[in-house]
C-alpha cells in the first residue's frame, strides 16, 4: 500500500487537473490512527514507534533481524542503550496490553490493589473462563457457575471498574479466543496471566504467558523484564492436506523438542508452507508451544491473517499492517539459534500422550503402541474444543466427520463433548448448523469456557483410580489434569481425529485406512474432512458479555469480606534479614516430573485462587516424594511422623523453621499459575533447588522473594536426602552470575558442599532482599514520593 502522503499527492494532482477544485485536508499527510480494538477507541496502534525502535536496534546490531526480534526489540524501553544478547541479557520491555483469566486475575488484582495505584497504565482485560465446571451442559453449567462464584465475579467486576480494566463476563468465552477475535494484531506485545497466551501469535503478535506479579508491573507502568529469548526457526514447506491439520504441526514439534526444548526461546514459524495454514490454525500451533516450554511462538503477517482481521471487523488494522508489513515479517538472511524443517505435504496425523504432551505417535501407530504398553484402547470420552482448538474451522471439520457417520446411521460409541471457544463461535456454529450436527452424533455442547481442559469436569462415568482412556483436542495431558484421576490416560490430537476416534470408540481405528460398519451392515470409509476456515456470512456475535470500565472509577467500591473463604487481602511478605539461610529442613525431595499442577492443583481448588491461605492447603499434594514414592506424604523432620505436605509446611512455619524443596528437571512446567510460587512463600519456604526450571515458574518464584537455584552439577541432586539440613551461604555477596554455596548437613554429622547456580539480575536480587517484587515496587514508590 502506498503511504498516505503519496495517496494525498496523487489525489490533489487528479483533482487539480479537473474543472472543479477540492480541498484535501493536511491530515491525509499523516498516517491514520487505528484503534487497538473496538472496545478501546482511544488507544491506538503505534507502528511508528515499533518502526523507530527496530531501526535503532538494527543499526546497533548491524545484522538482519528475525520477526520475533523485531517485535520484542521494537518494544524495548531504551532501544539505544539496552544490552542485547540472546539467552543472556535481561530486556526491559513496554508491552502494549495485559490480559488476565479469572482464576489468576484474582491474585493479580489483589496485588495491584496492594500497590496503591489508582488505575492501570496500559489497556487491560479480565476474562471469566476458568470457574465454570462442566456438568450437564452449557446453559445449566453457566447458571450454576454464576451462582457459586458470585462473590468472585463481583470482586473482579468491581475491581475492573475501579482500576480501569475491561471485564468479560462468564459465558463470554475462553480468554485466548477472545484475545484472537478482539485484541491480538500483527506486531502487538501482549502479556497474559495464562501460559497459553501465545495463542495470539497466530495473528503475528508476541503474546507471552506470565504470572500475576509480572502483570502488575506492566499495569503499574513499570518496564517488564524478560531474559532475551533465543529464536528457534521452524521452516514449513509443502502444504497441509487430507486428515493432517495445524494441530499435527505442533504435535510433531513437541515430539522433536520435548517439554523443555523450547525453554528460553521463541518459536518462529516461516517458509512457504505457512500460507497453507489458516489464521486460527496458526493460533493452534502457537497455543501449544507452551507445552515445549517456549517463551512464545509467532507467525509472520500474511494474507490469512488479513482475511481473519477483516472477518472479525478489523479491516482497518489489516490495512495499517499492510503498510508496515516489512516490520511484521523476518528480514531476509536472519539467523536462528536452531532450525527445524517440516514438510507439511508429508506430515501425518498425530496423537500425543499419555501423561505428557511430547510423547508423539502417528495416529496410524497408536493402537499397536497402546496394546504393547498396556494402555486402554477403548475410548471412554472424546472431548473437542478448548483454547487450542475451538475455532469455526475446527468445529466445521469435526462436523464434516460427524455428518458422514450420521449418513450411515452411526453415532459416537464414546461419550462426546464440545466446548465452543467463545460466545461468537457458539452463536455462529448454532446458526450455521454445526452445533446441531455434533449433538446429533451424540455430543454434549458445554459452556464457552475452559471446562475439562483444566480439570473443571464433574465426571461421573468412572470411579477415581479406574484405568481408562480419553482423547481430546486440548493442549495438556498431565496425570490427573482433566478429571483428577491418576489412571486416566489422556491423549491430545486434532478435533477431527477426536471425532473420528469417538465414533469408532477405539484407539485402534485409523481414519486414513480403516473402515466403519454402517447401520445397514455395509462398510464405509470416512473421507478427509473439509470445512471453511471462516463463515460465509459475518460472525454472529451472540450475547453482549463485555463490561466497559467507567471513565472515572475512583468512586467504585471493591468489597473483600474479612470472613470470606474465597477472597483474602494480601499481607506483605517478610523482608530478607540480611543473614544466610542456615539449617533449613527439606519439606520434600521431588521425584520426576513436577508441573504447576503437582505444586498447586486446579480443578476443585480453583475456587480458592483468591484466598492465599486456603489454597495453600494444596501445596505440592501431587508431587511424588522420593523417600516413599507417595504423593502428599512427607516426613516431619521435627516429629518423625509422616503427614500431608501442606500440614508439614504449616508446622514448620509455626515452629519458625525455614524449609526448602528439592526438584528434578523442568520443575514447574505447565500453567503460569503464580500460586505455585505464592504458596511455598506463604507457608515458610525460602529456597527451591532443582536440576532446571520452567521459565514462567522460575520468574514467579523470584517475584515472591524465593530463591530458585539450580545444581551446578545436576548429579548433586543425588547428594541431598530428605533428612538432611541445608544452608545457603554467601548471600551478603549475592550478585548476578555468581554461584551460591550450599552446605549439606547429614544426620550422622558429616557435611559436604555443593555449588548452586542462579539467573538473578540486579533488580531481581532487590526483589529477594525486599521480600517480594511487590514490596520492592512500594519501596521505590515511597522513595519517589
Automatic annotation (TrEMBL):
This is Aconitate hydratase, mitochondrial. Residues 69-505 form the Aconitase/3-isopropylmalate dehydratase large subunit alpha/beta/alpha domain. Belongs to the aconitase/IPM isomerase family. One of its GO terms (biological process) is tricarboxylic acid cycle. Its EC number is 4.2.1.3. GO terms for molecular function: 4 iron, 4 sulfur cluster binding; aconitate hydratase activity; metal ion binding. Its cofactor is [4Fe-4S] cluster. One of its GO terms (cellular component) is mitochondrion. Pathway: Carbohydrate metabolism; tricarboxylic acid cycle; isocitrate from oxaloacetate: step 2/2. Binds 1 [4Fe-4S] cluster per subunit. It is an enzyme of class 4 (lyase). Pfam families: Aconitase (PF00330), Aconitase_C (PF00694). Catalyzes the isomerization of citrate to isocitrate via cis-aconitate. Residues 533-560 are annotated as: Disordered.
